[in-house]
Every structure is written in C-alpha cells, then in structure tokens.
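Worked example (supplementary).
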Amino acid sequence: MTNHWRNALQKTLKDDQYSTSVSELYRHSHDESDHTPVEPEIVCFPESTEDVLAIMKIAREASVPVTPFGSGSGLEGQSIPTMHGISLNFERMNQVVKFSPEDLLVTVQPGITRLQLNSIINRHGLQFPIDPGADATIGGMTATNASGTTAVRYGVMRDQIVDLEIVLADGTLLHTGTKAKKSSSGYHLTGLFTGSEGTLGIITEITLKLHGIPEHTIAASCTFETPHQCAEAAHMILLSGIPVQRMEFVDAYSIAKVNDYGNYGLPEKHSLFFEFAGMKSAAEEEAALAQELLTDMNCENWRIAADSEERASIWKARHEMAYAYRHQAGMTITGGDVCVPISKLPELIDYARELISDSGLQGGVLGHIGDGNFHTSIAYDAKDPKQQLAAETINEKLAYRAIELEGTCTGEHGVGLGKIKYQEAEHGAAVAIMKNMKQMLDPTNLLNPGKIFA
Amino acid sequence: MTNHWRNALQKTLKDDQYSTSVSELYRHSHDESDHTPVEPEIVCFPESTEDVLAIMKIAREASVPVTPFGSGSGLEGQSIPTMHGISLNFERMNQVVKFSPEDLLVTVQPGITRLQLNSIINRHGLQFPIDPGADATIGGMTATNASGTTAVRYGVMRDQIVDLEIVLADGTLLHTGTKAKKSSSGYHLTGLFTGSEGTLGIITEITLKLHGIPEHTIAASCTFETPHQCAEAAHMILLSGIPVQRMEFVDAYSIAKVNDYGNYGLPEKHSLFFEFAGMKSAAEEEAALAQELLTDMNCENWRIAADSEERASIWKARHEMAYAYRHQAGMTITGGDVCVPISKLPELIDYARELISDSGLQGGVLGHIGDGNFHTSIAYDAKDPKQQLAAETINEKLAYRAIELEGTCTGEHGVGLGKIKYQEAEHGAAVAIMKNMKQMLDPTNLLNPGKIFA
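After joint prediction of all chains, the assembly is encoded as:
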C-alpha cells in the first residue's frame, strides 16, 4: 500500500525530483527550534505549480500528509512532518515570475529567499523590506506571517501581499486576490491563507508590494540602566510620531553574548537600536529629535553609526544574537515570542527578566520593541529534564501573561507545534470557527497535519 | 407566524428600540446608490451587544433576515434589506468602549461615525485617518473595507483593525484578534470579517489602530491638458517615493460641476490634488520635490494652499464632488469603482472618458489615483430605460476591462448588489470557497442575504 503512492510519485516526477536519502530525510526533519525532529518518508522537489498539483493528487488518493518546507529557518516546527508522509521542498521553485517595477509589484515562486529577491530588485531602486533576520523563503514568511525588525515601519508579511496562488487539498487551483493595490471585492482569502502555515492550502505563487529604497538611512543606538527604561523610552518615541524604520531592544545579557560571538565591542548594557530613513533632511531631523527625547530620559552611549559599514555591522550584530545563543556547546535554546499593547511592555519585560533570574537558567530578552513584540532566548541542557521544564515554564508563564495583558502568544513566529496549547486561551470561541475552516478546506487532514490545532 | 417574531422582538426590546413607522421603514430602504429600495419589516435599535444577541436569537428561531444599517452612506446597496426582515440600526451603539492613547488604540461600537471618533481623539494629538468622504460609521466602513483619500498613505480599513467582536448567526459571540499590534496566532479572522458586508457575522465592536496627527500639512494642486497626463504624473510621483498623504485626480468635467455647486473657483481643467504631511521640513521638502517633478512634466496652475482655510476648502470641494453630481434635478447617478495596477491607470482612465463620450451621457471621472482606484459618476434619467442601460453599460465595460487588466471591480465601495455580477470573472475558483464560508457560518442565510453572491 505504502509502496503504491511512492511508486506513483517516482513515476510522475523526474529522478532528481525526489529523495529518500538519509541526509535529505534528516534535513527535512527539523527547523531551527528545539521541537522534536520527525522525518518524512520522502522529500519531493516540485519545479512548477503543475508538479505541486500532481504530487497533491497522489497524496490525496493515498491519504498521505504533505508538509511544505522552505529554508528550514522556522522557529515553531511548522516544517516538521509530524505525521511523516511527504516533505515538499520549494527550493527549485525560486523564480521571479513577473517583476513590475512600474507597479511596485513582484510575483514570485515560494522558494525564493528574501535576499535573493532583494538582489534582483534593489538595482531598480526598490526593496522588499520585511526582515525576520534569517534568509527565509518568501513562501515560508507568507505561511507564518513573518515580520521582524522593519515591521514598525512597513507592517508584517500579510500587509505586503495582494495575491496568492493556492493549491487546495482537493486539487483546486485558485487566486486569492488581484494585482490591484486595494480591493473590496469578495472575502479576504489572501489574509486567511497568509499565516495559515500550510494547513489550509499550498502556496505556489505570491504577489508582493514593493517599496522604494529610502534616499538616506541613519543607524543609532543608546543604552539605559534597566530594561524597563528601554521600554518606556521606546513607548515615548512611538508616541512622538517619529516614523522609525527600526527600533530594537536588546538586554545587556544578550549584548554580552553577541560580543563574545562576533567581537562587536558593543557597550554591555540594556540597549536600543534605531534606524531612521527617508529623504535626507527628514531622516536627520528625526534622528535629532529622537536623540533629544532620549537624552531627556537619561539615555547613555548615544551613538550614530559613522558610515554604512558601521550601520551594517550594528544590524548584523542584532541578527546574530539569535545565533549567538545557539552556539553554546551542549546547550539547547528555546524562545518566546510574545506581543502586547505597547504600554504593557515595560511590565512584561520586567516579568520576563524576573522569570529568567528565578529559574537559575541563562537567557536573554530582545525584540521588536516598536511593535510591542519581544523574544526570550533561554539556554538549557536538553539532557537535564529539570532544566528543560524550567525553560518551558518561563515561556509558558510569559505567554499566558501576554494573553492576560490582551496580547498574543506569538507576534511573528507562528503557532506551529509550540503555541498550540495557547490557542484556546487566546482565541476562545474563535478556535471552533478556525477548526471548521480547516475541516472545510482539508477534510481528510492532509495539509501539514498536527500544526496550529492539536 | 409573522406576528410571532415581531411580538418576541417587542417583548425583548424597550418600546423606543423598534419602529415600523413609514418614515423609518423608508429611511432603511435605501442608501446613497441608485439600487432599488426595499423596506424592512421592522427597524431595531440595539443599545448593546446583548441586544444584538437577543435580536439575532429571535431572527434565527423565526428564520428572519437581518441586515445591519450604519449611516446609510453606502454606494452598493449593502444596507438595503433585499429580503425584508429586520434592519439593525447601530446609531445607539455609538460609544467609545475604550480609548488607549498610550497604545495608539481605540475600541468603539459600530455606530460611531469617523467624525465623532476624531472629535474625541484629536485633542490627544491622535487621528483616525481613513476618510471615504461621507461621515460613515466605523461599523459600515469595516463591513465594506472602505478607504478613500488617505489610503495611499495609511492603507485601507482592514489595515487599521486589530480586533473585532462578532455575533454569529448561531449566537456565538467571538473576538477575532487581540489588542497586540501584530500576531501570527491562528487564522486571520479579523481580515475575513472585515469587508464581509454583514454576510458572515454582525460586528458589535471594533478595535482600531490610531495615528499621530502630522506636525505640518501642505495642500497643493495642479492641472494638465489630458487625464492621461494626470495619470502619468501620479504614477511618476509614486515611483519617486514621495510619501504623499493624499493624491487625487478630478477630471475637468467634475471640476466644473463642483464649481457650479459650491462656487469654489477652481481652474476647470483636469487636476491633481496633493497633501504632503509630516515634520515641517520633510513636508516642505516633499512638496518642493513634487513641484519640480510635475513642472518637468508640464503641469500648469501649480498652487500651494495659502493657509489651513484654503486647504480645508480644497478637500471640501473634493468630497462634495460626489454630491455635486447627485444634486442635478431629475437625474440619477451611477458610479464605478475600479482599481488597477498603477501602470494601467492612464489606459483605463482614457477608456472611461471614451465610454462616457460615446454614450452621449454626462459624467465625470475622479478618484484615488495614488492607489490606482477611480470612480465614474454618470448622470442619467431613470425614467428613460435607454439612458439607464447606457449608464450601466459604461460601468460594466469598465469593470470587465479592469479585471482584464488584473485589477478589481471594486476598490473600496464593496460588492453589495451592484458588483455581484463580476465575482466569477474576478475571483474564479475562489468564489466557491467564499460561498462555502458563507454556508458554514450562516447555513440558513439570515445575515444580509442577497449581497456579494446571487
């Protein structure tokens, strides 16, 4: 029986379009999180929407689960094929289908990464600014509604998408939108499939809004004595109306970690990192006003990056913080991803630091403070069940507190496996509606089963 | 049988919370469009979510349709109770439930209008910028995913909403989101109910993002010889990256109409109207750069409003254009609402002017050119079937051409009654999914029946 669908796949695809090699099964068993790896039975490499339709047909007829795989940079296990079956790797569907600089639009296949995309469009003065840190695929970023450091200015993935091409479980191929910048026609399926983590349909094409590259960019940083002061300062910058392009918080512990990792020489204090961008005089005026406001709040170590090299170095350091934690021999990392109304941030960051201190574990707090979103990075020894429980407890308490504060258990990483347990607390009666939608679109639970819902 | 549910309503509500008076039935039979009026059997005025739940229970048990009503300023007949039953007027649910200036958030009941809301929040330096022209209710604007002149800067209604409270047909009360600025948790029900025109559930509370009032605002205008040149100029301004706050096109015909109506003394040529806003130096730099670019394209009559009074007068004129057309004795107005990728605009505007000229009718073309969205306003004598057919044919041809150009039949007015016929052409296979969602959430078709789908 099992051989039957594998044989069908092997007949349908070219020889190099599938693999059951040990190394490929391993590569597709995990992402960057600490969720338990599970291997697929086979990895397929579609090269077109037609390939996806053909694979889906075989999967449907044999009731075999299909789990999409982008770059494997997810943080909640979304691409782990929990119920085995087929891992659908999009690395060969990485083309620009249509680039329309005159419309500030680009249509891409899901396997293109954000850096690949930017390398093509930047020379036209355009950018795709969403930046989750990792060089994730656009498909993966769409599936998880990713965001990152620039969301404070440009919004999240969902805000960038005007149209998706989707393959449904029943083989229907559909478009969720048009190429118009806005529309009030029909139900908003684009927003629904975005962030659905491959559980409602398989994304085979994405049309994104593009943005001009600002004429001038200024990076700056400063430090405060406490995380609480950082959060209050960020809150005040937001209220001032300065349209920051990035505004990031990193606690002293995480700064020390990244200094060790990359020799950055940053002041080892609780820090805010800023980017101001726009026309030259506007960016300069914004930076000057921010400095004035932050100085009034007793910031220290205010520094404007001297040149584009130093600016790049600041953001490289910020992005490497996630990796700095991961490079501790013998330690596993678990991370939280809470997001709350901005006025609740000082309280929640204090609570996070308190939980980490009380646990006896080592960990940092850092994140996209301009959105009210921050992460914990907690290091634990996976061979020590007590440490593992302590690490999990920190994130659990933090998630429930975020929900109490009218926030969310996941600002940008998605639900995947790790945030399933908070869905009832966060969404209440809406969970039943979500489950009904899953049931309606995927009645036999073929599409990334085991994610979002238990 | 009929008396039974009416009696139940009358027992449940206070005496002044329902009406069957001739004037109320008439008021709730139409909106500002030319769609055929239909009267409800009764108008109810809920004062709380509990009232809505109670009314819905009675409606469900008696299988009576429920059609929400905001301010009656809709343009596609969404609030017309096509199948009679109950008109649910939200004018008494017009309170601010919670204003959190520190979080740049406000939670409101659906019956509050955008001007009522702004009068409360403006004094805190905050604004709710979405501006469809009419003083619509926030509930109505949410239900139709309205936008208007500021969408080019702030996005559409859907972009402003973090949470909705919804009463479903089966009596379930749910929240679609949280108060966090962003989230990747669960399916995006907020986006789905926004723009669903009361067909999937009844909106009883809306939480909106707020924006700071810019420090400085500059209004400007200029004229060109042809609509085509206006569209090309708008396209070029967008590509330049100047973050205009408003950018509107009005053809010469419509300028003449509004001059007649309000004595504005505007140059009777094809015109662009701009607003630049932000910190003072930034707004001035943007206006100067725009002037330079537009002058290179041979614009005429460049004028910056001398003071806030002249600025207000410009936007008052722009908003009154819709009404200027309506105030022609004996004439009915029908309007299109197409939206296409910005590079297709010059072609589509030319096509619209050509269709109007060929028809022998009088009509204007005007709209939110920065979004690729524009409207036609065609005057016809409703007593003359030939004229009516000619007017409808213009909008029909325009809508189909917009869809061919990868755009939408409705940029911001919604589907309602008038755009049903384009749903298959625009959405294809997705229409079946939308119908399934309607069937799932409202199996007995109680909620605003006859809208969006035939």
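Two points are worth noting when inspecting this output. The two ends of chain B are 27 Å apart (CA to CA). Chain B touches chain A through 97 residues (CB under 8 Å).
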